[in-house]
Specification:
Blueprint (H helix, E strand, L loop, with lengths): L5 H7 L3 H13 L4 H20 L5 H18 L5 H6 L4 E6 L7 H12 L3 E4 L6 H11 L3 E5 L6 H13 L7 E5 L5 H7 L3 E3 L2 H12 L3
Parallel strand pairs: 1-2, 1-3, 3-4, 4-5
Helix pairs in contact: 1-2, 1-3, 2-4, 3-4, 3-6, 4-6, 6-10, 7-8
Length: 213
């Protein structure tokens, strides 16, 4: 935790008052909103590790998510509304897979994608495979992001990939997985194309896919 900034540590400590105070100071000082979000993301990553180690529990995850929603409310107007409206970067479908209701990491990715000009189709949490397939058909998106915080939902990630293939859409999309328990081995198991270790990596992959680096 020593590498975290003061803001990142405040996120980990669940110090809501300090988090909002620091964010306000940074905005007033003219710091880039994506840089501020990066510090928050680093803190959220540490919370994920504490959850894995069973030092933090569901109540802490929920609390950190509520704090982050407050931060996003302050930052979203600064992320470039015109970019969000033009959606020139491309379309990205994202959702937390079936049997998992966590949306903290997903919401960070959504905010970063919107802030860099992507049109995001956020399917929410506990999303069944068929919903991803239907969304691909309706939107023509080239990228599908699957999020999970619980390792027992890995088969659900695989089920989404399999359903997309069964629908004859597999060669039309690139599938990215992400979330605290995910890694390269999980990517291989699920049949996804990419594994994003954090939100920033996910955005970078989307830019590479759409050729907008």
């Amino acid at each position: 935790m020593s590498s975290l900034t003061e803001l990142g540590k405040a996120i980990v400590d669940l110090n809501e008052e300090q988090v909002y105070s620091l964010v306000k100071q940074k905005i007033e000082a003219g710091e880039a909103p994506l840089d501020i979000l990066k510090e928050c993301n680093d803190g959220m990553g540490q919370i994920g590790k504490l959850f894995e180690a069973e030092e933090y529990f569901l109540s802490e995850l929920i609390m950190s998510g509520e704090i982050l929603k407050g931060v996003m409310k302050e930052l979203e107007p600064l992320l470039g509304e015109s970019d969000m409206e033009t959606s020139s970067e491309g379309k990205v479908i994202i959702g937390t897979v079936k049997d998992d209701i966590h949306d903290i990491g997903k919401n960070i990715v959504v905010t970063l994608l919107k802030g860099t000009g992507f049109e995001v189709i956020d399917l929410g949490v506990d999303v069944p495979a068929d919903s991803f397939v239907q969304s691909i058909k309706e939107t023509g998106a080239k990228v599908v992001g699957l999020s999970a915080l619980l390792n027992f939902t890995f088969p659900q990630m695989k089920a989404v990939v399999d359903a997309i293939e069964a629908a004859g859409l597999r060669d039309q999309v690139k599938i990215i997985i992400g979330g605290a328990p995910c890694n390269a081995e999980v990517r291989q198991y699920t049949g996804a194309d990419y594994y994003a270790k954090d939100a920033a990596a996910g955005v970078k992959i989307c830019k590479e896919i759409y050729g907008t680096k």
